[in-house]
Here is the input.
Amino acid sequence: MMQSALLPGWLRMVWAAALVLVALAHLKHVITMRGQRRWWHTGHTVMAAGMALMYLLPAMDHPVLYQAGLAFYVAAVAALAATTVTNWREEGVLNPLWVATTIDMVAMAYMLLPARTPVLTAVFVVYLAGQAVAWSLGLWSRVPVLAPVPAGGEGAAGSPASSAVVGLTAHTSPVVLASLAVMAAGMAYMLLAM
Here is the structure.
């Protein structure tokens, strides 16, 4: 197993274990949810599983796996971009969660490239660190269009629910928020360590 100052073998195992738990948390939602939430959790399940594999199986030891992974994640980026645009057209609102998930998937594909540029790597690290903070603090639920609509039928700031309704709203579950923060941090850390 490849060693680096930022990524010794024991730390690879810790990150891999954490990301397997993230994948399992999202897989539970894939099984129990419907509609956009099911597909959104599917995307996070495959990202977490892919990250766990990257921590366990370094690229230099498994180049064919990384080539296949790159093709898979590029296809996933295309599917997410299409999903984002389709939902935008249907809902009349560009959902920032779908945009962010598409960018997250772009980061997954970027990590699988045989060569990366320092500037783009730094951009992704800063973005993913920001995502980790946003998920940790539950900031996505403060975005008006993403705020879960209360039972009374009004959206954020007293606006009618119909103006704030999108098919995918922000999660407020501590398990989901923690899992997304761990995944974003794991992605940022891997990019730093590569």
